Amino acid sequence: MTATSLSTKLGIRKLTARIGAEVTGLSPDLDLDAETATAVRAALNEHKALVFRGISLDDEGQQRFAGYFGPLTSAHPTVPAVDGEPNVLPVDSEDGRVNHWHTDVTFVLNPPQASTLRSIVVPPYGGETLIANARRTPTTMTTRCRRRA
Fold first, then answer.
1. Which residue, of 3, 48, 103, 147, is most buried by count of CB atoms within 10 Å of its CB?
2. Nearest one of 10, 36, 8 to 23, comparing CA atoms
3. From CA 53, how far away is CA 49, in angstroms rounded?
4. Residue 145: predicted pLDDT
5. Low-confidence spans in the chain with pLDDT less than 70
6. What is the pLDDT of residue 148?
7. Whole-angstrom Cα distance, residue 126 to residue 98?
8. What is the Cα–Cα distance from 49 to 93, expressed in whole angstroms?
9. How much is the CA Rg of the chain, to the nearest whole Å?
10. Please, which residues bridge with residue 24 across strands?
11. For residue 53, what are the contacts with CB-CB under 8 A and spacing of at least 6?
């Protein structure tokens, strides 16, 4: 494994007006040097959600990548993690859990800064993940809605 260096052409392309960017120019294993990890973290802080296409990670690789953003937390306090991988939560559309609105463990005393999501099977249709920018929401609400909230 060779760490991607910032000298590799790192690309950040905004995806929507309010949230999200696509990151390009990284190796498929997302093994990063410190400078590149810092640049990716800055992109996450700015865009709130990042998309990486053409990536090839297993559970171990996903945890290594997530570790660039800080210490890992347990996958979920009430839902079982993958056997032997306490930081990996399996989410499978076959069990119906994925079709419900939720937040990623924001109800715990010290919530994680970020979550990583890895698609193993991408269906030909459906399978969308909607992500909201809760920090920006109050500024886009009408005065009436802000008062009610």
1. 48
2. 10
3. 13
4. 85
5. 1-8, 93-103
6. 83
7. 11
8. 21
9. 17
10. 11
11. 22, 24
């069990």: which residue's tokens? 95
Sheet with strand 21-24: strands edge to edge = 11-14, 21-24, 50-52
pLDDT at 2: 60
Residue 115 in tokens: 């979550």
For residue 5, the 8-state DSSP code is P
Q: Which domains does the chain have, with CATH numbers?
A: 11-148 (3.60.130.10)
- Dihedral sign of CA atoms 73, 34, 32, 135 in order: positive
**Global pTM value:** 0.80
Return the SS3 of 41. helix
Please state, in angstroms and rounded to a whole number, the distance separating the CA atoms of residues 96 and 23.
30
Closest listed residue to residue 111, CA positions, set 73, 82, 69, 54: 73
Q: What is the largest CA-CA distance in the chain?
A: 54
Which tokens hold the place of 121?
């099977």
Helical ranges in 3-136 per DSSP H: 34-47, 59-66
Q: What is the pLDDT of residue 99?
A: 61
Decide: helix, strand or coil at residue 52.
Answer: strand
Residues 6+ apart with CB under 8 A from 31: 1, 2, 3, 4, 64
